[in-house]
Fold this protein.
Amino acid sequence: MNRTETLDAARQAITVDRAATHGEAENTFGLIAAYWSAHLDTEVSPGDVAQLMVLFKVARMKANPGHADNYVDAVGYAAIAGELASLPAIPTEWTDAMVEAMVDAPVNRAAQPVAGQFQREVDASGSIVYSSRARSSGEADV
């Protein structure tokens, strides 16, 4: 796989395939950061998660240098890390109530925005903008 094919495969994976399966990366990485922060008893940001996943893929490259998927995934994680670095800071202090609310939240199998999650949209000028779906009156404030 040449560099163009690797980049094209990474673009397809992070903007179409994984987004359809897992939802927006910003939300998934935010949730992972919360879990890792609680488990490690230290602050982990969504950007840290993306960077650590790049390192995870680098370790897999070392173990199996001929497996193209490791390179594709590393490029994808690096792109997500770069995008997360350009977003406004999101509070990363998690209370027990916040973590419990995330654990109890319904699974988003249809990759639809859930209350409080960021949603990526493209505005009329072609710029990517982020918005948070408003909560309805019965939803938890996490």
Summary: The two ends are 43 Å apart (CA to CA).
